[in-house]
Amino acid sequence: MKKWIIGLIVLAIIGFGIYNWAVRFNNTAVRYNEDISEAWGNVQTSYQRRNDLIGNLVNTVKGAADFERNTLTEVIEARAKATSVNVNADNLNAQQLEQFNQAQGQVSSALSRLLVTVERYPELKANQNFLKLQDELTSTENSIQTSRVRYNEAIKPYNNHVKKFPNKILAGLFDFEGKPYFDAEAGAERPVDVEFDFNSNNEG
What we know:
Blueprint: H1 3-61, H2 69-83, H3 94-118, H4 122-125, H5 128-163, H6 167-174
Helix pairs in contact: 1-2, 1-5, 2-3
C-alpha cells in the first residue's frame, strides 16, 4: 500500500477522533448548560414568589395605625431595585451575579427590619392574614436557599467540563465560558406592582 494512502487513512482516523471528541464535548456542555438554565429558573421563581408575598405584606401592614412609613418605604424601594436587575442564565457573569446578590440582600435586610418593627404593633401580631403571610415568607426563604444550593450544584459539573484541559480548548472555540457561583445574598426579573398610597383611607 502506498505511503500516501496510509497517511490519508491515519489523518482520517485522527480527524474522526477529533470530530467525535468535539461532538461529545459540545453535547455534554449543552446538557449541563440546560441544567443550569433550569436551576436558574427555579431561583427566579423563588424570588418572584417572595416579591409577590412582599406586596401582600406591605398592603396588610400599611393599614396599621401610625405604622412607620420609612420602614415600608425601604422595603418597597429595595424590592423595586431588586426587580430591576435582570440576569439571563445564558450570559451570567460574576459582576451580574454580584449586583443581583446585593440587590436581593437589601430586600432581605429591609424585610427583616419590617418584621422586627411589627413586634410593636399588637394588632398586626394578632392579624391572621399577616401571620399567614409571615409563615409563607419563611417557607419561601427556605425555598430560595434550596434553589440557590441546587443552582450551585448544577454549575459545578458544567465548570469542571469546560475548564479542564483539553476541553477548555474546545470551550473557547464553542464559546462556552465558566459560570459564577452564588456565594452571598441573591432576583426575580419581573416586578410586581404594589399599591402604596398612604392617603387612602380604605386600605387593609
